[in-house]
Amino acid sequence: MLPSFSSIVSRLRLKQLRLLIALEEHGSVRKAAELMALSQPGATKALQEIETTFGSSLFERTSKGLEANDLGRCVIRYARLIHTDLEHLREEMVGILQGHGGRLAVGTIMGAVPTLVDSLARLRAKQPELSIAIVEDTSSRLLSLLDQGRLDVAICRTSISPRPTAYQTRFRAQEPLVVVANPSHRQASAPALQLADLMDSRWVVFPVNMPMRLTLEREFRQSGLSFPLYAIETSSTFTTLSLLLNDQNLVAVLPIDVAQMALDHGMLVKLALTIQSTSEPFEIVTRANVEYTASMVLLIEELTGRRSDSAAYAP
Q1: What confidence tens digit (pLDDT) does each residue in 154-165 have?
Q2: Phi-psi region of 14 (alpha: psi -120 to 50; beta: other; left: phi over 0)
Q3: How far is CA 93 from CA 89, 96, 97, 307, in A?
Q4: Cα angle vertex 252, ends 279, 179, to 5°?
Q5: Could you give the CA distance from residue 314 to residue 292 in angstroms, rounded to a whole number?
Q6: pLDDT for residue 170 is more than 60
Q7: Of 6-10, 12-16, 91-95, 269-273, which gets the smallest average pLDDT?
């Protein structure tokens, strides 16, 4: 039976987590012991204590050495997260002591990437020693990371959350959408297009329930057309771009800011079709009732184009 949370917390030590990581990396008690400056019997005893703490064996002995089992891989994954979080904690403390804010973790949906990149460039000019982590993902995933405290700020949509009041939001911005294709697409030079003109093309689309997918579905319904069959689904900008470059029959809808670089370099062309439907605006999102760090305040100011006293961001 798995011990209780309080039992695990009271018995587990940080050095034991580092030993688990070393055991997985080297597959050998002897090598892990050398790395940890322990004797081999000491490392063996420490592993036994860890397995007793979790109430289960975490490794299997094989001809290749120690290999983590399913439970072991789970524990080691969290051991790495805790280890990384402690590194980030020290990094942020150093930054605070040195007066440059430490570390900032930011999440963004694809359509907001250009906005974020521009804002971070200005922020880094002011705080060149600030450490920044960027995560690009769906709104649902970003809000989950925000809930866990793994993100300080997210640029996404809170409407997909069952708990929108758990967040503080500001600066709602639209994502103007364009239809793009390979420069060799047969409709690339057409002066004007209707959605029906692209029904014989294959579409690269966002996964089901993502806002831009819903926008495109609505566009087809309003045009009296069925959604394209055999569409290729991906949430990756790079994958979408690669597919369009590789196949001149493909078309896709992208936020104009995201597509602009590829358009400017002649990698894609903008088709003469206007998307009438608008996607839901994205927002700058933080957890409600959280005290903002100086770097969070500065980033939000850059994103919104406004300057405010830090007190204005207090929960």
Answers
A1: 999 998 898 888
A2: alpha
A3: 6, 5, 6, 25
A4: 65
A5: 7
A6: yes
A7: 91-95
| Residue 173 identity | A
Cα angle for residues 118, 136, 161 (degrees, 5° grid): 110
Spatial neighbors of 99 by CB under 8 A, at least 6 apart, are none
Residues 139/141/145/146 CA torsion (nearest 10 deg) = 20
Residue type at position 24: E
Q: What is the mean pLDDT of residues 135-157?
A: 92
3-state secondary structure the chain: CCCCHHHHHHHCCHHHHHHHHHHHHHCCHHHHHHHHCCCHHHHHHHHHHHHHHHCCCCEEEECCEEEECHHHHHHHHHHHHHHHHHHHHHHHHHHHHHCCCCEEEEEECHHHHHHHHHHHHHHHHHCCCCEEEEEECCHHHHHHHHHCCCCCEEEECCCCCCCHHHEEEEEEECCCEEEEECCCCCCCCCCCCCHHHHCCCEEEECCCCCHHHHHHHHHHHHCCCCCCCCCEECCCHHHHHHHHHHCCCEEEEEEHHHHHHHHHCCCCEECCCCCCCCCCCEEEEEECCCCCCHHHHHHHHHHHCCCCCHHHHCC
Four-point Cα dihedral 296, 300, 301, 302, nearest 10? 100
CA 123 vs. chain centroid, Å, equals 20
What is the pLDDT of the chain when averaged over all its residues? 88
- What's the maximum distance between 2 C-alpha atoms anywhere in the chain? 78
Task: Among 94-108, 198-212, 244-258, name the one with the lowest average pLDDT.
Answer: 94-108
- The Cα–Cα gap between 217 and 225 comes to 9
Tokens of 128: 């060149």
Cα(84)–Cα(91) distance, integer angstroms: 10
Tell me the pLDDT band of 312, cut-offs 50, 70 and 90: very low
